[in-house]
């Protein structure tokens, strides 16, 4: 009974494939503007959907929802149906399979990485993941770096590089709790410290101040270090407030030029 059932399933699948192939051939034989072509196109896409789903399922359990993978495979199938040329002498399945698989690989390469990494590392990561799954089944244990390198015919350094690059595949939200007190990951990151900028400015100001004459340097020091007003500086030095204003402006222009030159 089991043999008969398997035979029946196989015959049904073969018949379904033949029917799908006939639809593709019939659609391809019609010119682009033929009124029957859109309906045949829809029927052909529906007939080949099992192939698209089967290919999508091969990429399941890699962190992407199965429904999303089916959708991506559907996009690849539609592209294959629309671009297929029967006069090329290639069966539709031989054209559709690499088209759908290519769409799935592009999805993993372009949509599922939290941090952009070189395409070579993205493809290497996918190859390592597939090799790890295959070797785990054949070896009965987790494969080593050497096992994966030998299987993929690459160096161990390349395997390590691919594993390091895989860390960019997923990211952690800054809102992730890291303590029972409610502290989030973002709270543990350092912020901008204005003290460093102030220290750099003080270091740069030394040579810049030395370019001023004695009176200019005294006015700048009283104004910005002593926090005196222009009138208070004028009273202390014995000149008019207007004169202090002009000297201060001239000194600041000199300082600005010195600091820009240093930068």
UniProtKB/TrEMBL annotation:
Molecular function via GO: DNA binding; sigma factor activity
Pfam families: Sigma70_r2, Sigma70_r3, Sigma70_r4
GO BP: DNA-templated transcription initiation
RNA polymerase sigma-70 region domain segment(s): 45-113, 124-194, 208-256
SUPFAM superfamilies in alphabetical order: Sigma2 domain of RNA polymerase sigma factors, Sigma3 and sigma4 domains of RNA polymerase sigma factors
Keywords associated with the record: DNA-binding, Sigma factor, Transcription, Transcription regulation
Name of the protein in question: RNA polymerase sigma-B factor
Protein source organism: Actinoplanes lobatus
């Amino acid at each position: 009974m089991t043999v008969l059932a398997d035979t029946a399933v196989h015959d049904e699948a073969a018949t379904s494939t033949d029917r799908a192939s006939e639809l593709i051939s019939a659609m391809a034989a019609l010119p682009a503007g033929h009124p029957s072509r859109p309906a045949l196109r829809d029927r052909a896409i529906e007939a080949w959907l099992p192939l698209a789903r089967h290919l999508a399922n091969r990429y399941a359990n890699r962190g992407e929802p199965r429904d999303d993978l089916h959708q991506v495979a559907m996009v690849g199938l539609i592209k294959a149906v629309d671009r297929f040329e029967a006069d090329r002498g290639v069966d539709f399945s031989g054209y559709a399979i690499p088209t759908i698989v290519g769409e799935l690989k592009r999805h993993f390469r372009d949509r599922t990485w939290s941090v952009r990494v070189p395409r070579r590392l993205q493809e290497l990561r996918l190859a390592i993941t597939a090799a790890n799954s295959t070797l785990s089944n054949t070896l009965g244990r987790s494969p080593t770096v050497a096992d994966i390198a030998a299987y993929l015919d690459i160096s161990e350094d390349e395997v390590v590089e691919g594993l390091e690059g895989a860390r960019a595949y997923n990211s952690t939200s800054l809102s992730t709790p890291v303590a029972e007190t409610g502290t989030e990951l973002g709270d543990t990151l350092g912020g901008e410290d204005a003290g460093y900028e102030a220290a750099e400015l003080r270091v740069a100001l030394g040579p810049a101040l030395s370019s001023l004459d004695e009176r200019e340097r005294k006015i700048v020091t009283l104004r910005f270090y002593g926090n005196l007003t222009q009138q208070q500086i004028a009273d202390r030095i014995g000149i008019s407030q207007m004169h202090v204003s002009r000297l201060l402006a001239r000194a600041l222009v000199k300082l600005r030029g010195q600091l820009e030159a240093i930068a």
